[in-house]
Amino acid sequence: MVESRGAIYVGVPGDEQYGSITCAVEVKHPSGRDLYAMSCQHVLSATLDPRAEEIRSGVRVSPVMSARPQVRVRHVASSSEYGGRVRADGKPSFDVQLARVMDREWLKGALTTLRLSESQPFIPDRSTLEYIGARNGFEILVPQNHPKYIATQRSSLAANFRVCKSETLAISYTFSGASISVRHWLLGELRVLGGVTTEPGDSGSAVIARDADNACVLVGMHIAGDVRTGLAYFIPAFQLFKPINYWNLPFGASMKPVNP
Question: Taking all residues of the chain, what is their mean pLDDT, rounded to a whole number?
């Protein structure tokens, strides 16, 4: 098991939410390439009303350093206009957003234990996911610096893959104090082991498998859990790196997970 330091506060003091960074992403476009941090749209645009169908950019991201957010914090990233939609109208959602990185050293530290495999940094398709999931256990890299666990030792959660579900599973989200029901194109379902569950604020945590060299293969991004059943849900990695799933990406852009 490994430890993640990817917990982040998002927003202004007194109105911030918290979640977790999934991974570093390189976006290559006709005029160059840029480095981003990936998380959920419901983390990086946390106060957005989903009925507005927009992405909130320029929201400040700060590392979690204590159980309560500080008035003076170090801003390490800001939400970008690149992401999906969380929709309340029954249309499939894509709960993903990128943040522009302002402090690369912070990102390296936050993801120091997420050493991506050189040969296969992420699972490329559904058949591979189901094949690996039937033979290997997965880990959810929940952050050790989660505000609830800031003074304790917390490691990643072991989980077994169960099934992929297409638009049949409704996930309950809370935006601006209102609960909505959201459906995704495709979600993976995990059974968390050891009598523990994911927590609010673990959204965005990387779900990984291990290659022969013990490097990480990104399986997907954790978006929700059920404390009653011990189940957890993730967006598969092969969906995370399809430019067609994102609004506002430059024409011809490509993207991939990288070690920062």
Answer: 88
Q: Which residues contact 180 (CB under 8 A, 6 or more apart)?
A: 50, 88, 172, 173, 174
Count other C-beta atoms under 10 Å from residue 5's C-beta: 20
Q: Which residues contact 193 (CB under 8 A, 6 or more apart)?
A: 137, 157, 158, 159, 160
- The tens digit of pLDDT for each residue in 198-238 reads 998 899 999 999 998 999 999 999 999 988 889 999 999 99
Q: How confident is the model at residue 80 (pLDDT cuts 50, 70, 90)?
A: very high
What is the rounded (10 degree) CA torsion for 149, 154, 190, 49? 30
Q: Going edge to edge, which strands form the sheet with 92-93?
A: 92-93, 178-184, 170-175
Alpha-carbon span 238 to 66, nearest angstrom: 34
Architecture of 7-258 per CATH?
A: Beta Barrel (2.40)
Nearest to 84 by CA among 252, 200, 241: 241
Rounded to an integer, the average pLDDT of 41-66 is 79
